[in-house]
Amino acid sequence: MTDTLAGFHAWFAGRGWEAFPFQAEAWQACAAGTSGLLHAPTGTGKTLAAWFGAIARTAAVDAAASDAAGARADSPAPGLRVVWITPLRALAADTVRALQEPLEKQLCGPRAVARGWTVGVRTGDTSAADRRRLRANWPTALVTTPESLSILLSLDDAHEIFAGLETVIVDEWHELLSTKRGVQTELALARLRALRPGLVSWGLSATLANLDDAVAALRGPAAAADARVVAAVVPRRLEIETLIPEPMERFPWAGHMGMRLLPQVVAAIERAATTLVFTNTRSQAERWYEAIATARPAWKKHIALHHGSVDRELRTAAEDGLRRGKLRCVVATSSLDLGVDFGPIEQVIQIGSPKGIGRLLQRAGRSGHTPGAVGRLVCVPTHALELVECAAARTAVGQGVVEARRPLSGALDCLAQHIVTVACSGGFREDDLRAEVRSTRAFADLDEASWRWAMDFAARGGPALAAYPDYARIKERFGRWYVASPAVARRHRQSIGTITGDATVDVKWARGGRLGTVEESFLSRLHPGDRFLFAGKPLVLVRFDGLTAWVKRARGSQGLQVPRWNGGRMPLSTLLSSAVLDLVRNAAGAGGAAAREVKAVQPLFEIQARWSRLPDHDTLLVERWQGRDGHHAFVFPFAGRLVHEGLASVVAWRIAARRPSTLTMACNDWGFELAGREPFPADARSWRRLLAPADLLDDLLACLNGTEMAKRHFREIARVAGLVAGGQRTNRQTQASAGLIFDVLAEHDAANMLLAQARREVVEQQFEFQRLRETLDRITAQDIRIIDTPRLTPLAFPIWAEFIQSRLTTQHWLERITEMAADLEASASPAAAVPGIVT
Amino acid sequence: MAVTIACAAPPDADTADIVLLPGRAAWMPATRTLLAADLHLGKAATFRRAGIPVPEGSAQRDLARLAGLVRDMAAARLVVLGDLFHARSGCTERVFAEFTSMRQTIPGTEVVLVVGNHDRAVGRLPADLGIDSCLRSLDEPPFHFVHEPATPLPDLDHDRRCFTIAGHLHPTVAIGTPGGDRLTDRCFVAEPDLLVLPAFGSFTGGHRVTPADGLRLWIARDDGVVEVTRLARAPRRC
């Protein structure tokens, strides 16, 4: 074993490097059979730490075995020895390359230890032929995604495939942690541990505030105590600056594109050899790519666009261009947040508020990778108040704090899927599987009733036997549960494999060649001849046949529509929200001490103070405003978008419960807005009652029936649980929207626990219930100030300019339509006057 | 030819050619005919056969609603404008039995099925279902009953003397106000020479109608029908 590690060090030395102490620590621990978590910023050498560790572990096991047999092992025992889980299939190919490279070039070091090793890949992109080839001859190490791993676990010979597995590595564990796919990974790891009791598992993660949760989710709570947590300490300098608009007066108060700063951004790109421009949404990426290309036509061949909907080939071309230093600039979304090194990137530009410190660090980490280089990040606000968020993020990075990511628990949709998965692979005894599932962090507290329900759901559709005739996915035979038929198994494997829940449409050139995918909802509202921007190209829709949009290139870039993809927008983290409120409160009298960004928005805060007042920690500000379209109330708790969404729903519910009415809600990270036909209360006592913490959960659950939220959220649950088919090419006869299934379940199987799960998940995740409760508790101690404003204030305007997020109604639909008709009459008079500064 | 369409209740209802009823059906007083389209019976069973756990219940309820409407209107004839059944794999004994027992509760009513694309895929129906005639289309000038509105007319020249009544599209409409209130629901759609009924079956999806000149729209729910032509919104451009 010491030979092995010495070989690794020699390999590093051979390239003029020196292994970091954390890498050596990980090798040693892994080789000795210890599991653990390795956390470090992007691009610090986590991959090599884990990969060499896995090689050393396998070598140690083989050596022990051959010692026992009295023979010398020249190559690894055949079969799968290492599984490497990566969150994005787009990363798989890069990962394979990164793992293969140290095995190729030199004969010393890892190559000597890992003689005869092969590295393979299996993701949703792998062709059927390649999958067959894999099955015939498993590689020593397999790079895969959580979905593909689940599919492998559902094969009837899963126990043979994984019989020789020694190590499993979960890359970018923080990225999976707080998602359903994280729960799926936890269940898969538990399954692997059941198949291979001595299995060593390592998670690679960015630094988090709650590392112990990350370890518990990786290893299961019982084994978490034995796991090693290794921190990568790498000296690295990072410079963060914010672009300040000049002149500030002409900078918009709201908006999502931030195009006003284009000249400065182009100048910044000009200064550096290579730049990565990160945006928060795909629409922003399209717009910015187009704007930069138009501003500097000479760069046309040296800039590229990279986001999740652009075709794989175009994305690969962009990544290769970066790696080989051929590109000056790539405009990307979170699609480039993750992944192996892209080589020489000099600076990163972040369009829009980063919304979280962890995310800012992750993106900043993309630049300045060469040893000794300085990472450079430029924040570009899209509207005035984002300057404050940029300042808050910059300060927080300086203080070295970072957010937590909470793993999910009790996701019955994932459990139902997993039960069928295990049933497909040779069946299970109920007691065994229940214990195995409970060994995960996600299901440690799973009660008997929920387990019973999940089993019934898989076996009979639901507990109401009569409601589900002719249905079964699993069947019991002699004490073991098996999948009901090969057809069910086939369909189940197909549904595990799909990641996206939204219906997407291929975009193809009329003359051939694929450009990528857009959401069907966007395309269905286009007509042939309409022009839109996609994959960085102005396009004209030629025809749309339901599955494919045929396009050709459009001339000129006037009047192009930008697709709107349904990607979730991140909420401002608690840490950042609180930092923002600090800055706002201090903005009033800070003068010279304030950050540059805050100084720039000072005039805006002065207007705010004049028309209304500045919020602070001791006061809750409520603004009332009457527009042509009705009455508005703006409330500013500074608790992040999700909490505000929940608060808005509760307050709307409490108002509408007293008198049948329909209220619309909008929110951003600073506050929320309610709008309705009646004036909102003008006294603090009424508001205190509306914002009281008592009965919070009951009111939240009640108001979910009055909004579309639970139904919207049900889509993902329905897909995971196998209620709606994912992917495009499904049988036409079994197509139904999740919303329709939700209605049918609510009416004919109201006790269905997936409905309850949808409601619970909305409350816990969509509204961040814990944070919501804390916010209301905080408000009870605050002074409530209600101010009638003659016009929209600088703080209210960005909320007003958000698209209406949801509405809540307690009215009968006929009455609602009558009122709508009356509204239409009223607004037929000249358009309402509103501040006209939206970009 | 001017066909008059009225909502639900009197006074116009007695004199109108077509009355739109709550519950997504239509009534033609002159011939005492009740119209319904797109029941998609057995759709839930089709899903279950494919391993998707959708509960039973919506089909029975839809059938009970249909029989109730026939009785309330004392209809002489029920015309189903296609897609009575969803798919062959969902047409279990049980689904047919449910239809037959519904049929027995309305013995004095003639039942006509204008065959839809789904019905064609189901194939030959059992003779004892109680459907009196299965037709590709039904011509009773000026009315032309058909499943798919675009089906070309074989022997009628398609002039203004002909008014088509159809299903197939499962139309829905989104309405809204500048204040931000929005509502999407199933609807009746009418052009000067065409009426499309909403899907009668409750486990059916919808297809959003883009408002246009000359198009009239009515939201249709179980407890009312109301015209929303002026409130209809085109899909938002962004």
List the helices and strands and how they pair.
The complex is a heterodimer of chains A (839) and B (238).
Chain A: H1 2-14, H2 21-31, E1 36-39, H3 46-69, E2 82-85, H4 89-104, H5 110-113, E3 119-122, H6 128-136, E4 141-144, H7 146-153, H8 158-161, E5 167-170, H9 173-177, H10 180-195, E6 200-205, H11 211-219, E7 228-231, E8 237-242, H12 262-271, E9 275-278, H13 282-295, E10 303-306, H14 312-323, E11 329-332, E12 347-351, H15 357-364, E13 374-380, H16 386-399, H17 412-424, H18 430-438, H19 448-460, E14 474-477, E15 480-483, H20 486-497, E16 504-509, E17 514-519, H21 520-523, E18 531-534, E19 537-544, E20 548-553, H22 574-590, H23 596-611, E21 619-627, E22 630-636, H24 641-658, E23 662-667, E24 672-676, H25 684-690, H26 696-706, H27 709-720, H28 738-748, H29 753-766, H30 769-780, E25 783-788, H31 796-801, E26 806-809, H32 813-827
Parallel strand pairs in A: 1-6, 1-7, 2-4, 2-5, 3-4, 5-6, 8-13, 9-11, 9-12, 10-11, 12-13, 16-20, 21-25
Antiparallel strand pairs in A: 14-15, 16-17, 18-19, 19-20, 21-22, 22-24, 23-24, 23-26
Helix pairs in contact in A: 2-3, 7-10, 10-17, 16-22, 16-23, 17-19, 17-20, 17-27, 22-23, 24-26, 24-30, 27-28, 27-29
Chain B: E1 5-7, E2 18-21, E3 25-28, E4 33-36, H1 43-49, H2 58-73, E5 77-80, H3 93-104, E6 110-114, H4 117-122, E7 133-135, E8 138-140, E9 143-145, E10 163-166, E11 171-176, E12 182-191, E13 194-196, E14 207-208, E15 216-221, E16 224-227
Parallel strand pairs in B: 1-2, 4-5, 5-6, 6-7, 9-10, 10-13, 11-14
Antiparallel strand pairs in B: 2-3, 3-4, 8-9, 11-12, 12-13, 12-15, 15-16
Helix pairs in contact in B: 2-3
Task: Kindly summarize this structure in a few lines.
Chain A is of the alpha/beta class. Chain A contains 32 helices and 26 strands.
Describe the protein in words.
The complex is a heterodimer of chains A (839) and B (238). By secondary structure, chain A is an alpha/beta fold. Chain A has 5 domains: 2-231, Rossmann fold; 237-399, P-loop containing nucleotide triphosphate hydrolases (Rossmann fold), CATH 3.40.50.300; 412-497; 504-553, no CATH class; 612-710 and 766-827, no CATH class. In chain A, 44% of the residues lie in helices and 16% in strands. Chain A has 32 helices and 26 strands. In chain A, helix 16 packs across helix 22 (574-590). Chain A is globular, with a radius of gyration of 28 Å. Residues 726-730 and 829-839 of chain A have low confidence and may be disordered. Chain B is α/β, with parallel strands linked by helices and 238 residues long. Chain B has a domain at 5-168: Purple Acid Phosphatase, chain A, domain 2 (4-Layer Sandwich). Chain B has 4 helices and 16 strands. Chain B has helices at 43-49, 58-73, 93-104, 117-122, and strands spanning 5-7, 18-21, 25-28, 33-36, 77-80, 110-114, 133-135, 138-140, 143-145, 163-166, 171-176, 182-191, 194-196, 207-208, 216-221, 224-227. In chain B, the strands form 2 sheets. In chain B, strands 8, 9, 10, 11, 12, 13, 14, 15 and 16 form a 9-stranded mixed sheet that branches. In chain B, strands 1-2-3-4-5-6-7 form a 7-stranded mixed sheet, covered by helices on one side. In chain B, helix 2 runs parallel beside helix 3. Chain B is globular. In chain B, 47% of the residues are buried. Chains A and B meet through helix 20, strand 23, helix 28 and helix 32 of A and helix 1 and strand 12 of B.
